[in-house]
Structure formats: structure tokens, C-alpha cells
From TrEMBL, chains A, B:
GO terms for molecular function: glutamate racemase activity. Its EC number is 5.1.1.3. It comes from the Bacteria. It comes from Natranaerovirga pectinivora. This is Glutamate racemase.
Amino acid sequence: MDTRPIGVFDSGVGGLTVAKEIMALLPNEKVIYFGDTARVPYGSKSKTTIVRYSQQIVRFLLTEDVKAIVIACNTANSYALEEVKEMFSIPIIGVALPGAEMAVNATQNYKIGVIGTEGTIKSEIYSKLINQINPGAEVIGKACPLFVPLVEEGLINDSVTEEIARRYLDDFKQKPVDTVVLGCTHYPLIEDVIQKIMGDKVYLVNPAFETAKNLKDLLIKNNIENSEINTNHHHYFYVSDRAEKFEEFAKIILNYPMMPVKQINIEDY
Amino acid sequence: MDTRPIGVFDSGVGGLTVAKEIMALLPNEKVIYFGDTARVPYGSKSKTTIVRYSQQIVRFLLTEDVKAIVIACNTANSYALEEVKEMFSIPIIGVALPGAEMAVNATQNYKIGVIGTEGTIKSEIYSKLINQINPGAEVIGKACPLFVPLVEEGLINDSVTEEIARRYLDDFKQKPVDTVVLGCTHYPLIEDVIQKIMGDKVYLVNPAFETAKNLKDLLIKNNIENSEINTNHHHYFYVSDRAEKFEEFAKIILNYPMMPVKQINIEDY
């Protein structure tokens, strides 16, 4: 029994879809969320830069006395997970491995599609993890750079988003893949559009949900769950720049009135 | 006669449209371009942050012995132009004032539309400047957040870009405005789509072109033009992170084979 909070971080708002799944699956746990809004996006930055950013964020989260950390950002997961795991003794998990494991469990024909930002697809993180689990699986990655701006513009159920999705996902229909990993934390918000284009027979893997399940196992294994009921939603949200747009978007994703968002200077950590 | 280069900076690739106009209008001048690709985008960041970034970039450009600086970024222009002008003795100009002046010259009905990123529209920089020149002009701003990602995805002449443009520009047709300022350095690349939606009678102001004219006047006034012919395109390009995507995009905008792009650590300045 451990009442300390769970640290969750992302380059911006996207990781809130992961925080949401954690809050739903583990309602007793408190979440400390950090969104690096001053330095978003991570996708176009180098490994060295992302490792430095991730170290700073872990140091900040440790000052908030977290008991475990979830890297809810595919780029930071790809570039920095191993580095920060070696550097800090606290349990740290990413979103990619739980997503990759589920994809391998779900596929029947071993043709798996992965969609994400340019950075995530170029990093081949999902392909590598999937092929570590099953070297025979064929993984087809496709960058969908417009999905994040479309979601952030609120075009969730929109003909333009559908048209763009149709263009991006055409590649997958040729193969054909039977499983698609939503390899970017924004994508669960347009899951319906993606499902519509791909058809009912394709299984969509949401790594956010798989990560929450993974975190639950980790807390149980380490005997650090919180059994104290957290009915007041004692979650805290931090950003590195301007909280305004973050709050707006967070309310849409989390669907409950939020605590005020605090701004910190992440370069101090 | 002064053979030193002109410094031009932006948060990323967009300012290259300004560099392009400068190279076309002032073919003898050498350009040192800096794109802050590690910290892009500026639009969502605070004034304090943008002033600090701009100071660092001016200090870097001074190490390259520039004779004048153009802030080819609407956000940096809006938040930091006055601050850096006070701090450094070198001539520094932005893109917004030349654009605002041209808009007031061009309008017949004194209803002027301004399009840009959320940051630029919220800053009201064009409205303020236009109303300083002519307090009677009505200025209608409209943020078009998807234009930058659409342009960067290469959807220049595309039905999706046209559909999005139609939605964004509907407001202007109601008023109706007779002049529209392209208040973001990416927008000249989709000028044709915007012109098509707005119709032939609406005058589009390209601040990049107006800024090049303004710079020419400044060089003449200060007697610091370069009369030595620069046939070899001796321009230099610097970025703060990963040059790859920058080079790709720069070739499209500038339309000539570029010098290799160098990466520097801007936090050192």
C-alpha cells in the first residue's frame, strides 16, 4: 500500500489520453502529469536533446515524490526510455512495449500496421519491439503528420479528417493488415474515423489502454498500489509554458473539471 | 559599400520565404539564415521565452558579422522586435510593419483581413500596426492553424487545403474585406489557393516581399549595400536541431541547390 502519485509525462497534451486510461483503470491512484508545452514537438528533435529533456522531467517528477513514471510520449519512449531507466532507480515504463505486445497477441495474419508521427515511424520503435517478440511478423509503418494538427483543431468527426485518413491508410489496405497500432497518443481521439476507413475486421491497438494495464501489473508486482479511495480526483497538472490551450484540450480529453494547471521552468531541473 | 551578410531568422523553415524575396530583390547580398528547429513552434510560447530566444539568435548572428537583421517570424516580431532593437545597436527590422504599411496602401474600403497562426492573431500585431497608420481601418483577424502543417505536408495545390481554406476564409467574405495580409511566412506558398477562394478582386499582401523592399531602403539609407556581385549564392544556413527535413523544404522554397546546413547549439549564445 503506497499513497504516492504516479508520474506521467508527454511533450504536450497527447499523453493525457494515457493519463485518462490510468485514471479509469486505477481510480485510487493520483496522477502527476507533466506536459512539456514549451518544447513541444519532440518528433523533430535529436536523440541527445530528447534524452536531456526526459532526464529533466524525471528529476522534476521525483521532487513530487512519485512512485512510478509512465513515459506517455512515443518519441521520448523511443529515444530515452532505456537511458532514464538506467539512470534512475524508480520503475519507469513507456507506451510502446505494451502496444507492441498487444499487437502481436491480436494479429492473425502477422501483418501489422503502425501509424504515428514522422519521428515515431522513422525510429521504427514498434517494428523493432514487435519483431523482438515475433521475428516473423511483417510490420508496415506509415507516418500521418496531419493527424495531430487535425485533432488539435477539433476536427474529430470531420470529412477532411476522413479524407486525409483515407489517403494515409490506403497503403494498409493493399497488404492487407489485420491489426493497426495507434502509435501516437493523439490518435485514440480519432479512433472512430480510423476504424471506419480500415473496416470492422481490422483490430485497432490503443497503447494508452495497454499501458494502463501494464502499470496495474507493475504496481501489484511491486506491492505499491494505493488502496485508499481517491474520490476527489486529486490529480495535478504541470506544463512548461502557457497553460491556457492545455486546459482547454485537457477538459475535452479527460471530460471532468480540472485542477488549475501550474507552469514550471523545466530548464531548472 | 559593405560586403558583410544580412542575418535572417525564424523559428523554422517559414522564414525562408522571406530570405527568398531578399535574395531575389538584393542579388548581391549574402544571407545568413538561422532556423530555430530545436525550439519550433514559437506560437504557443510566452513572451519572456521568445524574447530570450531572439536575444540568443541575435548574439549568434553577430558572431557571423552581419550588418543588419531581419526577424522573419511573425511571433518573434510581435513579442521581441522592440526588445532586441533596444538591446543591440545593429539595424533590425521585422516582417509585420512592412506588411501593415502595404495593406493600408492597398485597401480601398478600409476592411482588411489578416490571417496567421493562433499566436500571431492573438497578439493582434497587424491590427495594432494598421490602426497606428490608419485608425479608421477595420481589421479582421483569422487564425488558420492547419495551413502550416498542410504546407509542410506538401499539400500545396490540393482539394483538402482548398476545403480548409474555404472554411477559414468564409468570415472574410461576409464583411467583405478587399485586402488580406498573409500574416505567416508559410502562407505565400499557398497564395494561389487563397486567391482562388477569395476571388480576383481581393488584394493579397505578402509581407515577405514588402520586407525585402524595406530592407533595400534601409541598406541604401545607411549606405551599407553590397555592390560586389554574388553570383555564387554565398548564403549560409544554420539550424538548432536536425538539418535533414530543413534541407528538403529549403530546396522546394528556394529552388536552387543549397549549401550544406550546419547545426549549432543555440543555448550557448
